[in-house]
Amino acid sequence: MIRALVVDIDGTLSDRNRVLCPAAVEALRKLKAPVVLATGNTHCFTRTVSVLLGTPRIFIAENGGVVSHSEEEMEVLADLKLCEDAFEKLAKVFPLQRFNSARYRFTDIALQRNFDVSAATAFAEKLGLAVDIIDTTYAVHIKDKKVDKGTGLRCVAERMGIDLKDFAAIGDSDSDRAMFELAGFRASVGNASPELKAVSDYVAKKSYGNGFAEIVGHMIGHKMFE
Prior knowledge:
Hypothetical Protein Ta0175, Chain: A, domain 2; 11 strands
């Protein structure tokens, strides 16, 4: 039985323009199980979204680099210095442009999607940099290799006292795969990447936030909650 959900935000609860989908918000409010938001966005952004949606102040930000355990407690799991060093080296070869959210970030660097991510990844590997370069379809992130949404989920699940297999994971991009690999039930929205759909237990026919609402309806209809 599912005791909690871990849910991506952009492209999963939103529409293609990153506007929260009314159907997704309505579906969230039908849930009695706690919902842990998991995103590549900043801690302050995620906290604000959690307040507006009415979800707990327990969430995963910066692709697992930062987790929030409560309104008062934030835990940093990654090293921003590794990312800054990688950025400095990569910027000599690729036209990297930071988003203006940089001043709010604790552990990773968010970039415009204006360069060849595959080539940059190969270059970083050649230099032996301890970072991953991931494209979430909304931004490209340079992040500490040792963290991802899966490490973030492990951290919050332990504090919540909920087994990883009692989580349902819902998302849309390859950056969600690490948390999918840990969860007991995995569902992707219709706009999800082919790779994420391939490891999903359920793939919504509808896309974006409407797909999330479809998934919640499926779970409630199949009495999957404790």
